[in-house]
Write a structure and sequence with these properties.
single chain, mainly alpha
Amino acid sequence: MVRHVECMCCRESSDAMALVSVSLVLRTNASHLPPGAENKCIAELEDFTAICVHSGVLRVSLVHYQEYVYRGTTDPESNRSLRLEAYRQYTTWVRGYLGKKNRHVIPSCAVWAIRER
């Protein structure tokens, strides 16, 4: 990580913490947050693993991106292509589609979870 801004945690992002809260409430079928939920990292969620780490999901998403958005050719099996797609998946999942040249910092915990896979 080069800049101080890039060293933020998901707990510092209101969008990420809202997603953690909703995910935990839905998973536990409760009407309120379970105890200790405010300390939960987004990278620990099952949804994060399914959306941003699972290689099958990333490959399908990458093919869709190449076919309908990018119209370029990259190797869908390369680690770099899958990692960049995981970052796109995370951003779309947490913030929605941002549009061209509109970028936001991905929390370092999510970046490291994606890199370690």
